[in-house]
Task: inverse folding
């Protein structure tokens, strides 16, 4: 048996999807929760990320040390992450340890949330915020998000601020957890060498008692804001530029063309920004990427350079973006498509990569798209598709944020 797709839903709304592969040598499982800063109130900014930390602080059955020790005992590659829209918990293991990994993750998804752990971890979060405040690019990116999205929660900071984290209480976190971490707001994704029916039964034995809450999200696309701002950071020697402009959403078929366009303009090597800025030595970094989200999407571009070259770098970067459709060539499109296809195939060769892709697909599309179909959609992109995309998303309105030395 090769890869097949399996899907079921428990009575409480918990969705379980899988791509079993009898030829795989490993197995992976992930819990995808629709919970990120997009779902937070402004006063609770950072609670999703904080809550991710608390998941590793122990349960009614396990202490924090036991959670980590057991993952280590089975040799798991495990972790968690929080984005603007999703919090993910996952483990990649040998097939004989998949049952243990599922037991650990289902237990973690119902944490103890003890007051003493909450108070201790709050200091860790505040230290993490302080650490990122010393990273110029992170400062510029957060400012760009705030300016671009305005008052919309997508412009909130994933880590929160010193003020919101300090004022956050354990009871507020518990209320947020009880609502957002409901089974009808979670997708369980599995891939690799596994017995789907057995996994479903194990998950159901634990999770069927979880109560649905009807957690939902406003997926309307927030209006973008044009902006132009300069920040000063005395202790930096580089100049940074970050820009944002509208792009296709995760549900928009134009996302494939957007991926190709991003590679043509701003891949890390071989792109137009590479040849126009990196290769001549004008900039140290210059990239453009597309970020598809729930009901909305953005193109994000940035560059870093010597302050004396900043005006020249910004001029070349914006001219490169704005003139992209004038002389598109089949050769550079073919090169971008080949690289995307290679990256997608490499990621999906491993059960962990396939599990992540499956979970993200279902969370945003409520659908399954085989790798072969995704590759076909990317390979079908033409120069005409890119021209139509830029007509629809002409990189305006855009927010530009610069950071320079004093």
Result:
């Amino acid at each position: 048996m090769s890869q097949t797709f399996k899907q079921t839903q428990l009575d409480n709304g918990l969705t379980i999807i899988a791509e079993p592969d009898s030829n795989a040598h490993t197995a992976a499982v992930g819990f995808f929760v629709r919970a990120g800063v997009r779902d937070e109130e402004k006063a609770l900014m950072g609670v999703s990320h904080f809550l991710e930390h608390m998941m590793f602080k122990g349960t009614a059955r396990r202490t924090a040390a036991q959670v980590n020790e057991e993952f280590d005992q089975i040799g798991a590659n495990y972790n968690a992450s929080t984005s603007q829209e999703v919090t993910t918990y996952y483990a990649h293991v040998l097939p004989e340890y998949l049952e243990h990994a599922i037991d650990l993750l289902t237990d973690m998804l119902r944490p103890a949330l003890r007051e003493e752990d909450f108070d201790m971890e709050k200091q860790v979060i505040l230290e993490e915020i302080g650490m990122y405040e010393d990273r110029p690019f992170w400062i510029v990116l957060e400012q760009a998000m705030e300016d671009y999205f305005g008052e919309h929660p997508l412009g909130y900071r994933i880590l929160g601020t010193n003020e919101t984290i300090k004022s956050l209480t354990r009871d507020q976190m518990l209320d947020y957890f009880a609502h957002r971490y409901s089974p009808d707001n979670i997708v369980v994704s599995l891939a690799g060498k596994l017995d789907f029916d057995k996994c479903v039964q194990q998950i159901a034995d634990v999770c069927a008692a979880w109560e649905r809450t009807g957690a939902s999200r406003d997926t309307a696309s927030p209006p973008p804001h044009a902006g132009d701002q300069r920040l000063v950071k005395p202790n930096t020697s580089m100049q940074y530029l970050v820009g944002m402009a509208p792009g296709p959403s995760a549900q928009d078929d134009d996302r494939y063309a957007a991926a190709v366009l991003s590679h043509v303009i701003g891949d890390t090597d071989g792109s137009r920004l590479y040849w126009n800025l990196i290769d001549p030595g004008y900039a140290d970094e210059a990239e453009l990427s597309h970020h598809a989200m729930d009901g909305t999407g953005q193109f994000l571009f940035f560059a870093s350079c010597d302050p004396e070259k900043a005006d020249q770098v910004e001029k070349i970067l914006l001219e490169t973006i704005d003139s992209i459709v004038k002389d598109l060539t089949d050769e550079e499109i073919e090169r971008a498509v080949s690289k995307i296809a290679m990256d997608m195939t490499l990621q999906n060769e491993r059960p962990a990569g396939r599990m992540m892709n499956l979970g993200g697909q279902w969370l945003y599309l409520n659908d399954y798209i085989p790798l072969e179909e995704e590759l076909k959609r990317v390979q079908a992109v033409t120069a005409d598709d890119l021209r139509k995309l830029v007509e629809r998303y002409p990189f305006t309105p855009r927010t530009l944020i610069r950071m320079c030395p004093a």
Observations:
- The first strand starts at residue 6 and ends at 9.
- The CA atoms of residues 36 and 85 lie 4 Å apart.
- The chain has a mean pLDDT of 96.
